Amino acid sequence: MNQENALIIFVRNPELGKVKTRLAATIGEENALRVYKELLRHTRDITQNLPVRKLLFFTGSPDPAFWPSEIYEPYRQEEGDLGFRMEKAFEQAFAEGGRKVIIIGSDCHELQEENISEAFEKLNSHKAVIGPAADGGYYLLGFSALNRSVFQHKTWSTDTVFHDTIRDFDREGLTYAVLPVLHDVDEGKDLNEVLRSLIYG
């Protein structure tokens, strides 16, 4: 394992009524929870074999049977908006010896192990890497050195986040690589065949 490559994974504890609230507005809270549990399973499956350090930043209490501590190092997310919480997670990963640090969430069912491996490769020749989401946000962000500006002055969970982040890269003079556009699962229209089958059979 390359300890200098660190993958931050942001997750929430799967609790009824507290996850996928926009999705729950159209398919109900129980179905939204079922979908989120599948997203967590997918995230675990595509990350557990990566030869990198894995830092699980959670809200709530992670299930140690689902996220074994010998694979995923547990950390509690800081209080604050998403940008502040991500900045603090990156800060910790770099402070603990990370040379290439990438963050993902648990919202992208299209994300694969190969995408994450490619992102780490891109950081060999770029200062930053980003995976744009179809809704205007991003599903992956990575750096070879901490850059705080990208976590500030953003309207999170809107369609401006990706473009605003690219502007930060340009303003800071960072070389960056852009991965393929993928879809996050936030609303009913985002459900793919696998996720629909959990609800509708």
UniProtKB/TrEMBL annotation:
Q: Which residues form a coiled coil?
A: none
Keyword presence, Transport:
no
A Gene Ontology molecular function term for this protein is: transferase activity
Q: Which organism is it from?
A: Adhaeribacter soli
Read off the Pfam families from this record.
DUF2064
Source species taxonomy: Bacteria, Pseudomonadati, Bacteroidota, Cytophagia, Cytophagales
Highest taxon, organism lineage: Bacteria
Name listed for the protein in its UniProt record: Glycosyltransferase
Q: Which UniProt keywords apply?
A: Transferase
The yes or no answer to whether the keyword Cytoplasm is present is no
